[in-house]
């Protein structure tokens, strides 16, 4: 019976794909309605500890208007809004916690989708993570307003309806709720509230591909790592403040690429920007920070540039390269390679991409980290379209299923595009997705006990290409099943000699601390 269901699912997807270009956004929900009915057996497709408001709370909410003010919401206020949302829109939202902060606050995630409690077969999961640095507060409020905007426009806006019918959107308004509680409104710069309650920068706390990260892992980071290991996210945005730019991987760069000239620049930078840490220097009197490193490009650089441009060009002014200060240069077209801006170790976007194949872009959405609340409507209008259009990019490239010859899904099959060495995996239902630009590709597929496959794929701009791969079991001459060689992370690590500690490495470490004022 299970095989029959899977064969039906694949046939339905193939029939939709064979009809050529996808219909206009207002017609797309029809396919979503069809696919949302497909399930495996009678078991739910996803098990999470979803929060359900108690009955008295639900009754009270029925008589109250549902709205969200343009104001900053502390942890208790944010929690009340999220619970009110899932009470008001139980068929469109689901609230769950991925863990707790150092001080015991829940790390809330809200699913906004036409199928909030169950994974939709063949439909991608995407996410936003905001307020990773507690004093970068605009992103936190943008996420609350995005939730409100999606649920209140589901029945009236065809594009939003299509997006929610075809995508499961996971929104984390605050990864660092402890830091937010001590940050100060009106503080455009500085570090108060940036770190978690133990004084750790969460965006320097993830495993790193280029350099061993010896920082003690934090509960907030552990929670995110476990979260992304359980859900196959296709696309992600990490929201920050303090600049106006979309920054894409890699954030770090091999130590061997740091030339003497680059290190000399860092020495000069330290000399000319010492007043950044001076309590007597404020506002325009601060020295301008100007540092340029070499870009560190991924095998999917074309895709990442496109994703970054999708956000910047739909933003009210980001793509114009508006500089946050007169003493600084803006970013061309509002995008930058992370390492070219400044390299950092232990960043979240590199971790998502290398370890799990999730394409994450860092979105710096405000020049001021914690502007006065009366400016929030402007920030929402500037970013509203970008936030929605960015998520829709998950429906670009290829998608499909990996199955055995009996029609059963193959879980954790390893896939990659030939010549692009960052891979991705199939889900427990055999699904896979990959964002790609139009062109011809070769898809390589490997799985324990199966003969490897290589499939030619053509990607077009109008709609994702459906690619279903059937793997055949194989035994070697010694009688054992074929097992491909695979080592985590997914990226093939080149030979990189570790840098010996010394004067220059101390300067580099100090520079990384200096740029903690950004991103």
UniProtKB/TrEMBL annotation:
GO function term, MF aspect, one: zinc ion binding
Recorded coiled-coil stretches: none
Cofactor: Zn(2+)
Cleavable signal peptide: 1-20
UniProt keyword Metal-binding, yes or no: yes
Swiss-Prot/TrEMBL keywords: Carboxypeptidase, Glycoprotein, Hydrolase, Metal-binding, Protease, Signal, Zinc
Alphabetical list of Pfam families matching this protein: CarboxypepD_reg, Peptidase_M14
CDD domains the UniProt entry points to: M14_CP_N-E_like (cd03858), Peptidase_M14NE-CP-C_like (cd11308)
All copies of domain Peptidase M14, residue ranges: 71-394
SMART domains attached to this UniProt entry: Zn_pept (SM00631)
Source superkingdom: Eukaryota
Gene Ontology process terms (BP): peptide metabolic process; protein processing
Active site: 364 (proton donor/acceptor)
Gene Ontology cellular component terms for the protein in this record: extracellular space
Similarity remark: Belongs to the peptidase M14 family.
Protein name: Peptidase M14 domain-containing protein
């Amino acid at each position: 019976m299970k095989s029959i269901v899977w064969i039906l699912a694949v046939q339905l997807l193939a029939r939709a794909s064979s009809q050529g270009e996808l219909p206009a956004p207002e017609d797309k929900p029809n396919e979503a309605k069809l696919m949302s009915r497909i399930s495996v057996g009678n078991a739910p497709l996803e098990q999470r500890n979803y929060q359900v408001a108690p009955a008295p709370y639900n009754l009270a909410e029925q008589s109250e208007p549902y709205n969200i003010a343009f104001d900053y919401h502390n942890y208790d206020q944010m929690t009340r809004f999220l619970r009110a949302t899932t009470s008001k829109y139980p068929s469109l939202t689901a609230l769950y916690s991925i863990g707790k902060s150092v001080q015991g606050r829940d790390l809330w995630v809200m699913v906004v989708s036409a199928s909030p409690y169950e994974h939709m077969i063949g439909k991608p999961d995407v996410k936003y993570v905001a307020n990773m640095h507690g004093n970068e507060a605009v992103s936190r409020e943008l996420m609350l307003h995005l939730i409100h905007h999606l649920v209140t426009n589901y029945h009236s806006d065809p594009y939003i309806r299509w997006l929610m019918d075809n995508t499961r959107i996971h929104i984390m308004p605050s990864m660092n709720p402890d830091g937010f509680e001590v940050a100060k409104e009106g503080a455009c710069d500085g570090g108060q509230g940036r770190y978690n309650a133990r004084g750790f920068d969460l965006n320097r706390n993830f495993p790193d591909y280029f350099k061993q990260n010896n920082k003690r892992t934090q509960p907030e980071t552990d929670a995110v790592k476990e979260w992304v290991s359980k859900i196959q996210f296709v696309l992600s945005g990490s929201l920050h403040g303090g600049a106006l730019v979309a920054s894409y991987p890699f954030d770090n760069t091999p130590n061997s690429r740091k030339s003497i000239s680059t290190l000399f620049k860092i020495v000069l930078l330290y000399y000319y920007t010492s007043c950044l840490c001076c309590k007597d220097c404020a506002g325009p009197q601060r020295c301008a920070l100007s540092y340029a490193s070499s870009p560190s490009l991924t095998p999917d650089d074309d895709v990442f540039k496109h994703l970054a441009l999708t956000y910047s060009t739909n933003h009210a002014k980001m793509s114009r390269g508006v500089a946050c200060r007169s003493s600084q240069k803006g970013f061309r077209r509002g995008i930058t390679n992370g390492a070219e801006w400044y390299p950092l170790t232990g960043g979240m976007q590199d971790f998502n991409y290398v370890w799990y194949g999730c394409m994450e872009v860092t979105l710096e959405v405000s020049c001021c980290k914690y502007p006065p609340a009366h400016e929030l409507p402007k920030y929402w209008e500037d970013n509203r379209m970008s936030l929605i259009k960015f998520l829709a990019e998950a429906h670009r490239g290829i998608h499909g299923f990996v199955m055995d010859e009996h029609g059963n899904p193959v879980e954790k099959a390893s896939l990659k595009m030939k010549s692009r060495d960052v891979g991705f995996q199939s889900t427990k239902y055999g699904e896979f997705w990959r964002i790609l630009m139009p062109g011809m590709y070769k898809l390589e597929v490997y799985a324990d006990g199966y003969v490897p496959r290589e499939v030619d794929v053509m990607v077009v701009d109008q709609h994702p290409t459906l690619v279903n791969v059937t793997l055949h079991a194989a035994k070697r001459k010694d009688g054992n099943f074929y097992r491909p060689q695979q080592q985590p992370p997914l990226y093939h690590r080149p030979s990189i000699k570790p840098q010996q500690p010394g004067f220059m490495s101390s300067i580099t470490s100090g520079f990384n601390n200096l740029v903690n004022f950004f991103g």
